Amino acid sequence: MFHIYCPHCAEYREEEEFHAKGQAHIPRPLDPEACSDKEWGEYLFFRKNPRGLHHELWVHAAGCRKFFNMTRDTQTYEIKEVYKIGEQPSVVAE
Amino acid sequence: MQQYSGFGLLKHSLSHHENWQRVWRNPTPKKKYDVIIIGGGGHGLATAYYLAKEHGVTNVAVIEKGYLGGGNTARNTTIVRSNYLWDEAAHLYEHGMKLWEGLSQDLNYNVMFSQRGVLNLGHTLQDMRDIERRVNANRLNGIDGEVLDPKQVKEIVPHMDCSENTRYPVMGASWQPRGGVARHDAVAWGYARGADSYGVDLIQQTEVIDLIIEDGTITGVKTNRYGDIMADRVASVVAGNSGVIAKMAGFELPLESHPLQALVSEPIKPILDTVVMSNHVHGYVSQSDKGDLVIGAGIDGYNGYGQRGSYPTIEHTIQAIVEMFPIFSRVRMNRQWGGIVDTCPDACPIISKTPVKNLFFNCGWGTGGFKAIPGSGNVFAASLAKGEMHPLAEPFSMFRFHNGALIDEHGAAGVAH
Q: What is the pLDDT of residues B160-201, one digit of tens each?
């Protein structure tokens, strides 16, 4: 069971209030029409999926309903930090 | 290889069963192989077996970082079925189903395949529409299937709550009589024994720490125990860790690894002689020969490699089972565990060439890999032997995520993923 700090609510809440939304920091291509099939496919579907540190997007679904980012170890499940959308992580995955 | 038989059992009983030969060798690897298979789970061992048996490629090594069949092969809920909606998936899983039906004889190893039937329940009108569509599609593809009404469901599973007073009443089900369960460990062991008898080297306790790639062509692997081992072709069949191998090869996959939990109860007397799955309340249950209820449900939502999951997911699973079977409400759970499943965006596997020449991937089976072990191994072996993908594997290329030819089996496969 994760105990997650929501940076918007500024409180620790239980995992059940949150949903994981996959890899964070995936910028939408600025000009989708100019993308090749490969570039567009990789934007839509291809993911990092590391065993170790991972930056991911979470949503406080049963709380403030806002999105935020989390740096978490996918092996030990330790949460290194949470930060708001638009901010950069201080603990950086390779 | 010593053949197992009733007579052999009798003969060995005279020597107090102390002289059985080892089931497989524990060899030191050679310097070079025709094919190296990374991952000694069900899919990897089946691939090795069919490579040797059907294609005569016996200079093969299976490299496993733990022990054989110790990953998801040992952690699933052992359900076998082939009632998939789309033609591509249906053909692949049905290919596997046909192999299952003769597997114990083929391997001379009892995999305890029990065709006790699989029920996929419908609880809403939309569920029933989807079930009718899927059963019709199955029958057009030559796969057995029937649509049942609640009365017929009740006849098959008398202990299930089929009344109209429940929160999610059972409105019907799809029924695949040829589906069932098998003994998960025996599948890995049977394939391992078969592959070993053809001369395949099974290298356990050895981790692949890097790939040797020259000019975009793979030539071997680096291991932690035996240094570099060269190969003409390398096949990665490592399920949840596919992303790790892909990273060594320098590309990404459209996969995310999630924990998938399962649990078994204390053994109870026979009460459930079929497999019950429900997409809508989202749980599935069968009873093993030992008597314990084998229960599973959905994945944990986050990425994880920890081979354990969260308690809220277990709670949801049990809620679903108790909703269907109030009679199980006081059965105590004995063990709970998690496996790491590599899920694809379209809930279909990847059996594919890769951007690296002579490196092949078989992964992305997500929550439904066990049933596919024979079929997956069979088509993957054919692809490795020829260097060209088997026609049944062709649609499952990783490049379908570039050209958009996805095979959307979400939910259509009978249980939500």
A: 999 998 999 999 999 999 999 999 999 999 999 999 999 999
DSSP 8-state symbol, B274: S
State the virtual CA torsion across B300, B304, B307, B313 in degrees, nearest 10: -10
The domains of chain A, with CATH numbers, are: 1-25+52-88 (3.30.2270.10)
Is A94 an 8 Å CB contact of chain B? no
Contact assessment for residue B231 and residue B212, using Cβ atoms and an 8 Å cutoff: no
- Calculate mean pLDDT across residues B229-248: 95
Give, for B209, the enclosing helix (H) or strand (E).
strand B208-214
Which chain A residues have a beta carbon less than 8 Å from that of B403?
A: 37, 41
pTM of the model: 0.94
B3: Cα separation from own chain's centroid: 26
Pairing of strands B256-267, B333-343: antiparallel
- Distance of alpha carbon B222 from alpha carbon B224, whole angstroms: 7
- Residues forming beta bridges with residue B180, ordered by sequence position: B80
Task: Find the CB nearest A45 among B254, B302, B305.
Answer: B254
Question: What residues does B132 pair with on adjacent strands?
Answer: none
Q: What residues are paired with B1 via a beta bridge?
A: none
Q: Give the pairing type, strands B292-299 and B333-343.
A: unpaired
Instruction: With a threshold of 0.85, tell me whether the complex ipTM lies above it.
Output: yes
CB neighbours of residue B211 within 10 Å: 21
**How would you class B173 by CB atoms within 10 Å of its CB: exposed for 0-12, middle for 13-18, buried for 19 or more?**
buried
Report whether A77 contacts B306 (CB < 8 A). Answer: yes
Output DSSP code: residue B406: -
Q: CA B208 → CA B160, B215, B235, B244, B257, distances in Å?
A: 47, 20, 12, 10, 19
Give the three-class secondary structure for B103. helix
Q: Locate all alpha helices (DSSP H) within B199-324, ordered by sequence.
A: 242-249, 311-324
User: Looking at chain A, how many residues does it have?
Assistant: 94
Sequence-separated (6 or more) residues with CB below 8 Å from residue B330: none
| For helices B184-197 and B373-386, angle between their N-to-C axes, nearest 10 degrees | 30
Q: DSSP 3-state assignment of B248? A: helix
State residue B308's pLDDT score: 87
The residue among A74, A76, A79, A94 with the most chain B CBs within 10 A of its CB, best to mutate, is: A74
Q: How far apart are CA B50 and CA B408, in angstroms?
A: 28
CB contact under 8 A, A16 and B243: no
Report helix, strand or coil for B256: strand
Q: What is the pLDDT of residue B417?
A: 44
